[in-house]
Amino acid sequence: MDHRRNTRLMVVALVVVVAVVALLPALIAYRYTSPEQRDTFVRRPWRGWSFVVAALRVPGDSELKTSGQALRKADWLFEDTLIEPQEVQLLFVTADEPYAFTQDVGGRLVTAQVTPSYRFIWEVRGTVPSSAGGASGSRSLVVALLDYETGRLLYDVRQDLPEDVFEEPAPSAPSAAPGSSAPASGAPLPASTP
Questions:
Q1: What letter would DSSP give residue 158?
Q2: What does residue 103 show for φ and ψ, rounded to 5 degrees?
Q3: Residue 60, helix vs strand vs coil
Q4: Distance between CA atoms of 152 and 99, rounded to whole angstroms?
Q5: Tens of pLDDT along 58-86?
Q6: What H or E segment, with its residue span, contains residue 16?
Q7: Is residue 45 within 8 Å of residue 21, measured between CB atoms?
Q8: Mean pLDDT throughout 116-122?
């Protein structure tokens, strides 16, 4: 009886170890990648192994090793613009193949394709001026893709924005009070002498 119990315990332990070894890389990949990619690791947990292998082979001199570094770079890239980077997610892409995505920018469906130097890309999401954000204007869009290894800007949403988004509105002329004779240009009247 004691022998059977030990055998069952060993079988259960072996099944748990195999499950952990098989699923642990998928859980790691699930934790560190973009929400759009997480379902891939749930449906195909063996893909987690390729993520772990790629993570272990990351070049040591990579420019953007953390999400904080990537967000600081995005903030710097869009520093004097109306684009506000808000969050950064890691994308795990297929080796030696371009990565493509589609999004709605200002009511236009835009498809972009980039080729990173390594299998990791930082996806930067943020807000753009309301006239380019479609109906709601405050929707989160992909504003940039940054290469993990080189830090190079792979995609910039400004390429896909309508040209008039960044134009400053023309200043309106102050309206004159009723009965005054202010010039139409809004220039001040010359001072009168007493």
A1: G
A2: -150, 160
A3: coil
A4: 15
A5: 888 889 989 999 999 999 999 988 899 99
A6: helix 2-32
A7: no
A8: 91
For residue 146, the one-letter residue type is L
- The predicted model scores a pTM of 0.70
Give the residue carrying structure tokens 């940054």.
Answer: 146
Contact criterion met (CB below 8 Å) for 81 and 166: yes
| Backbone phi, psi, residue 87, to 5° | -150, 160
Q: Could you tell me which of 113, 125, 117, 112 has the C-alpha nearest to residue 148?
A: 117
Q: Which alpha helices (H) appear in 61-154, and where do they start and end?
A: 67-77
Among candidates 77, 100, 61, 47, which has minimal Cα distance to 146? 77
Model pLDDT, residue 48 = 84
Going through the chain in order, the beta strands assigned E by DSSP cover 84-92, 99-105, 108-114, 120-127, 141-147, 153-156
Question: Which has more pLDDT, 106 or 114?
Answer: 114
Output the six-digit token pair for 76.
Answer: 């710097």
**pLDDT, mean of residues 1-19:** 79
Q: Is the pLDDT of residue 37 over 90?
A: no
